[in-house]
Amino acid sequence: MELNGKIALVTGASSGIGAATALKLAAAGAKVGLAARRVVRLDKLADQIRTTGGEAIAIEMDVVDRASVEAGVAKLVQAYGGLDIVFNNAGLMPISDVEALKVGEWHRMVDVNVKGLMNSTAAALPHLIERGSGHIVNTSSIAGRKVFAGLAVYCATKHAVSAFTEGLRLEVGKKHNIRVTSIQPGAVDTELFNHISDEGYRDQMEGLRDQMSFLSCDNIADTVMFALQAPAHVNVAELFVLPTDQPW
Ligand code: NDP
């Protein structure tokens, strides 16, 4: 798909993979809606994009809150006149053993990683259907393909993302000419570990940096761009992208 002039929503655009992808989308000529809760960061990113000749607006959005998501999508559609691309990327990974019973953190992961992604899909889909084309890219994970001890709930949420993504592709690909892609990264250098409250797991995750060369956010942004820029009749359904030296 030619991205120049296309209108894209990126959730989780305030840091990490989302911010890197938003920059590449804007550099390719897309008009980008930058969505997340940390609006100061979004404003800074939007300024950076505009300074380099791109187009972007900051959209304060909590993906857990359906009204916030609907309002954010409406703001983007009003600003640029439609919607072509959705990068459902917001997520978090506060991992711990199940027996630690951090039920609040389990619920938070389900709310953001699964229900949040469904909220933004629900708000965006009618606009893509109206256009008769579009592309939805969902950030799943290696944890959406395999299960790891300590990551039971996170893996459950990312397996749900993978299943939802494939089901969506089956329903809207042929019927509405909408492509649907699941991105499944391994270890990427982002802020994702910052929210791990279990010190042991946080140290373990940080320690992985000494064992392998983490992917950069740009590496994953490039894979998203690959899927988006494929010819219109090509739906890159899944992209499983790992550090070369990731041994699991
Ligand atoms: P970051 O922590 O850097 O980014 C997470 C993004 O999600 C932030 O922009 C954050 O914005 C946003 N977010 C979190 N909660 C909400 C919410 N309630 N509403 C709106 N936005 C929210 O980590 P990553 O870039 O790594 O994470 C992006 C995605 O990549 C996630 O889905 C993650 O699970 C996935 N992933 C990451 C891997 C890695 O190794 N880093 C590997 C595989 C998948 P804000 O706080 O401002 O709202």
UniProtKB/TrEMBL annotation:
Keywords: Oxidoreductase. InterPro entries: NAD(P)-bd_dom_sf, Sc_DH/Rdtase_CS, SDR_fam. Gene3D superfamilies: NAD(P)-binding Rossmann-like Domain (3.40.50.720). GO terms for molecular function: oxidoreductase activity, acting on the CH-OH group of donors, NAD or NADP as acceptor. PROSITE patterns: ADH_SHORT (PS00061). The keyword Oxidoreductase applies. It holds the Pfam family adh_short. The keyword Oxidoreductase applies. Belongs to the short-chain dehydrogenases/reductases (SDR) family. This is NADP-dependent 3-hydroxy acid dehydrogenase YdfG. It comes from Variovorax paradoxus.
